[in-house]
Design brief:
Structural class: mainly alpha
Helix content: over 70%
CATH topology of one domain: Serine Threonine Protein Phosphatase 5, Tetratricopeptide repeat
Order of helices and strands: HHHHHHHHHHHHH
Strand content: under 5%
Number of strands: 0
Distance between the termini: 69 Å
CATH architecture of one domain: Alpha Horseshoe
Length: 254
């Protein structure tokens, strides 16, 4: 009994001796607890935001800053359902991202999570507001910078983000003339060859293939996404891609 008692004391002591960054990482790693498919519970991600914010002034400030951006994205994307609240969350994340880029100009992670939040900001505010803000050009500039800093970062995320903006941004003569669907396919293929071929990469590559009239390949990839089994700490994100892929495949059926 004494051994168990001292073990419990040791474990409690370890818990309280954790730094804010360690607590934040633990909470973020537990973000899927209590989730139902692509709808997440707020408890763990709010703890992550709290502890990442507290860790900003510590030695791990870069990791904490990156953690704040990815946590705000998760909170706005998978927890909050009210669009007005989403707008506030993503606006805050974008503002923080702009500040963190100045603080850490050589960090591909800061730029990547800034762009993820910026993309979600554009979705919540709509196409017109995004176009007026120069959203597409901003995405292009920072995606190219991520590739320059570290082409392997996060499974080729620089190529992925640049491919997505080529895919989704509208071609507007004399205003936005660089988006190119062939270039989108090329970039998304490049991303697929670096690290893991993730569900977001598969889904967006399938969309690029479909838009370029390679429908059979597109359907094969979409089915691959749909037949995936969500697991681990990223299962909410996986469910979201599966649901989106199902909706997309229904929308393009003849």
């Amino acid at each position: 009994m004494k051994h168990i008692f001292f073990l419990l004391l040791f474990l409690v002591g370890q818990l309280f001796s954790q730094s804010d960054l360690e607590k934040a990482n633990l909470a973020y790693g537990s973000r899927a607890l209590g989730s139902i498919k692509n709808k997440a519970n707020e408890s763990q991600i709010k703890l992550a935001i709290k502890y990442y914010t507290a860790a900003i002034s510590d030695e791990g400030a870069l990791d904490a800053s990156t953690g704040i951006l990815k946590s705000y994205y998760y909170y706005g994307k998978y927890v909050v359902e009210n669009n007005d609240v989403k707008k506030k969350i993503f606006s805050k994340a974008v503002s923080l991202g702009e500040k963190f880029i100045i603080d850490y100009p050589e960090s591909p992670g800061i730029r990547y999570w800034y762009l993820v939040n910026l993309g979600s900001w554009a979705e919540t505010y709509g196409v017109i507001a995004a176009a007026r803000s120069g959203f597409a050009d901003t995405m292009k500039v920072h995606s190219e910078k991520i590739i320059e800093l570290d082409r392997y970062y996060n499974d080729g995320s620089g190529y992925f983000m640049l491919g997505v903006v080529h895919l989704r941004a509208p071609y507007v003569p004399f205003f936005l003339s660089w988006p190119d669907k062939d270039k989108a396919e090329e970039l998304l293929k490049s991303a697929s060859l670096i690290g893991k071929f993730t569900l977001p990469q598969k889904f967006n590559y399938a969309k690029a293939l479909y838009k370029n009239n390679r429908k059979e390949e597109a359907f094969d990839l979409l089915k691959d996404v749909i037949n995936s089994t969500p697991s681990g700490e990223g299962r909410v994100e996986m469910w979201d891609q599966i649901i989106e892929a199902k909706e997309y495949i229904e929308s393009i059926k003849d």
